[in-house]
Amino acid sequence: MIEFEDRHVQSSIRSINAAVNKAKTEKSANLESFVKNVCQELGDKLVIPQDALGAFMILNNADQDQFAHWLTECVKNMAQVLQEEFNETNIKMKLKDLRVKPQNELFAKLIGCGKQCPFCAAPCEAGGQEHSEHFASLHRPTALGGYSFVLSKKLDTDICSSLVIAPNSTFRCDATNGERHHYKDYKDIFPDWKIPPDGSLEASDYWKYVLVKFNNKFAEEFNAKPADIPVTWNMITPQQAEESLNKSFNIK
């Protein structure tokens, strides 16, 4: 935080010094013209209120080079004072005084819009609120979204990316009024979701491990029967599950 503040101050100082030096090369009739040239050069990089300029306009006929010298000296001293204040101010107080709260912005980016995949409950990863289409890069077994087979009542271990290209796979839910609907035509029901069709994709080892470990709990939660777990899923260790999770989020 201090490093960022220091960079910002140094950038402002460079802008002021550059504006002053450029104004010195121009022929200004008086100090007022000189100051206006400085402000014009700064533009919106550093806006100086006009009422703040009036205080030294009584020096309108003062030597411009001397004024420029003391102006840059004052700016230099001001930078030192600011840096001392930055070092002494608690980080929590700094965040509290900011107009835009970075922790809130970061949280909003991480949590996304709050929407979940209608099949596996994976959270939308589009970030923030302003997007027209929801998506998740990694989908989960649809059992985690409460989907089960109609006849057997067993939770389904398939993932959405495979189901949306299966020609005969169907689903039914409240959105379909309990009627069967083909997964491949899911956009008819959920037009704001984009699920990448890929039959080669599998659920991550992490979610396989989760379903294995809590199969009965999920079945109880969704009023279904436990899923038929593939044999290889039972061989996934906690370490492999953790490594899979880290890989999914690029954590090293």
Characterization of this structure:
This protein is mostly helical. The protein has two domains: 2-97, no CATH class; 112-248, no CATH class. 45% of the residues lie in helices and 3% in strands. It is built from ten helices and four strands. The protein has helices at 2-25, 31-42, 50-53, 64-88, 91-97, 102-111, 160-163, 205-213, 215-221, 238-248, and strands spanning 134-135, 170-171, 181-182, 193-194. The strands form two sheets. It has a two-stranded parallel sheet with strand order 1-4. It has a two-stranded antiparallel sheet with strand order 2-3. The longest helix has 25 residues, at 64-88. The mean pLDDT is 84.
SSE succession: HHHHHHEHEEEHHH
Shape: elongated
Instruction: Tell me, rounded to a whole number, the average pLDDT.
Output: 84
Count of helical regions: 10
Distance between the termini: 24 Å
Number of domains: 2
Strand proportion, as a percent range, falls in under 5%
Main sheet, how many strands, which sense, barrel?
A: 2 strands, parallel
Largest sheet: spatial strand order: 1-4
Radius of gyration: 31 Å
What structural class results from the helix and strand content? mainly alpha
Task: Report low-confidence residues grouped into runs of 5 or more.
Answer: none
Percent of residues in helical segments? 40-55%
Question: What is the count of β-strands?
Answer: 4
Organism: Liparis tanakae
Protein name: Interferon-induced very large GTPase 1
InterPro entries: VLIG_GTPase
